[in-house]
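Let's study today's protein:

:::
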Amino acid sequence: MKSSLSQPPVAYNEMLDASGNIRPHYQAFAQWLSEQPAESMIERQVEADLNFRRVGITFSVAGDADGNERLIPFDLIPRIIPADDWRILDKGLKQRVRALNMFIHDIYHDHNIVRAGIIPAEQVFLNPQYRPEMQDVDVAENIYSHISGIDIVRAGEGEFYVLEDNLRVPSGVSYMLENRKMSMRLMPEIFSRARIEPVAHYPDLLLDSLRETAPQGADNPTVVVMTPGMYNSAYFEHAFLAQQMGVELVEGQDLFVDQNTVYMRTTRGPKRVDVIYRRIDDDFLDPLAFRADSALGVPGLLSVYRAGRVTLANAIGTGLADDKSTYLFVPDMIRFYLDEEPILSNVPTWQCRKPDELSHVLANMEKLVVKEVHGAGGYGMLVGPTASRQEIDLFRELVRARPDNYIAQPTLALSTVPTYVESGVAPRHVDLRPYVISGKEIQTVPGGLCRVALKEGSLVVNSSQGGGTKDTWILED
């Protein structure tokens, strides 16, 4: 795929072509929108906000001294993607996740990719996310990332690029599902004009895939969702997914280990647990193996896991593969493990740990996006073109002090889609997080979490940084 990122950054407009004409996949919606009085759109937006708050779709921001729950803004105007574009994404996402799972298995077994000199040994074994406790541990179906959230952007002339891989505890799928419910409630008539792929089957698909990866001998496997508790910023999603799958939502204190088996405490006595969809970081899973001060985990859980008597989704140690410095090597993984060329391209990336690339980053920081390799949520990053001189100088010193902790990328002109703002309908920048489920086979749900930068000109889409969400419509053929 030819890249146009070297061209001057002009945002690709997903609704309008270069002549200002409405692209075919937006025409039905554009016609409907033109028929709507401004007052009705305002009423719909108010109703959406009230319903999201009533349902409890809020989040808390790390570091917020007040601890206030915030509503993630929902934009009424969907992002619409034609079937041909989704076919490319679907194929590329499955290819990428297949290679990533093979990479993680290889790293915790034979290290073939390291022996071949494709990935430096220090990139793996000195990585904070590498878990030596997982060495030579066999996991069911060789699946490590059961649920992967792959962040996709459009840039250049409309090409798709992978921005990040999220393989530890990817979040946001509840918003994908609730956004669709809200769209169908507020705009039912448009669903009769456009054939839109459904997403409501995601919980059933997830549950079936989790059961497929249960330990051998578990004929009717018990699945649970494990949460850190109600004060976690994503607690709504944990409870929502458990409810939608019809399984128990548990905390560490609800589980215990006995005779190398994990049990759940119930009113009818202990019940064996076969699959734990855990929304807790590795460090807190087992105080006997990782952080001894963790009150969130289950003592002895790692020993049961190593014995193959419980499945953890996602597996311990998957963080090695979604490190932003490991991201650079994913195209090489695809070539090495699958003997295929990558369908989806990475964004060009400089590794600050390399002296020549560090020099380039330090000299051009005002033009680049600089990120911590373990950063998330829009934190630990600098968007050079919108940063002040003081912010750039400060970040330059941080990078000089810990170059191995940073990577840099060109400032992408993320594609824009129509968005309902105070002044009316205006273009705003977006990204997309499709969700890839790995069971006996790798599957996607048509769509994903579309995040939108609501501030004019902003490229930061994270909800913690003022971004909102949109429903994503994948059109059927």
